[in-house]
Amino acid sequence: xxxxxxxxxxxxxxxxxATVLPxxxxxxxxxxxxxxxxxxxxxxxxxxxxxxxxxxxxxxCDERQLHAPGEIxxxxxxxxxxxxxYYRKENGEPLAYSSQRKRFTSVKAWFKWLTQENYIPGNPxxxxxxxxxxxSLPAKVxxxxxxxxxxxxxxxxxxxxxxxxxxxxxxxxxxxxxSELCGLLVSDIDRVRRSVFVRKGKGGSDRCIPxxxxxxxWVQRYLERGREQLRVNLQEYALFLNVHGExxxxxxxxxxxxxxxRHAEIECEGSCxxxxxxxxxxxxxxxxxxxxxxxxxxxxxxxTTTIYTHxxxxxxxQVHAATHPEMMKSERSVRGxxx
Length: 339
Hints:
The protein is mainly alpha-helical. It has 16 helices and 5 strands.
């Protein structure tokens, strides 16, 4: 027999903002599912993302008078998949395929859990094909000169400037994700071993990654002359603090880095991930093996890291110049060897 909850209106929180869900029978199942995720050791980032994705589903279901998991059939889930495709954001733009896939992955995971917990007799989402995401490369990879220009453009005369310089140095030196940087504690920086301890990165895994001497110097300057001016709560141990003396949220850090890029007159999409792409590409250009880049970036699958073989043009240019007949002929002409 399909179980059905009757619950009151719930207020769910995502990325620091409250989301009020309708008085729908699906809401208590979501609450129970989020609790289950935490008990099973899923990261808080995963829990928050699932909450936001499934809250959107519940609002969609409420508009169609669907109040229990057993009322949602495979055709209804396929209709929701089409809804994601035709959905338009406030600025009129559609959801990216990656965003559609992320939201729908949360839906499939939830219905799998509902089935495993015997709230429904069968999984209506199991046979619905996942959304295919076209493989694409970043539109731009920062050059070494551009990274140096960004660093040089930062005003380090006050606490916030020292913090900003240290943040960009760490992003570029380590290739750390923005959510991972937000979670860094002061104790996670090991100057003796020249390493950074990343706790509960993507997938909930810890890892230890190297950090360069220049980045360590700026982190130390920030700790000595900047962090204490920003800190409000003595019990706050986050490494990088915002103007309120608190740890950055991923969104807040992204906005900060975008502002720093605009100040440096760097025109490109993205923020923190630009430095992650730049670090991996520059290391590959200089001869680093892909498996070491994989370990630093924290990729579970090396196929994810292979994107940087497409971004790294330096090696391809060298091979092209050394082996392409037209390039070889041009080189002989420059040397005066004739044709």
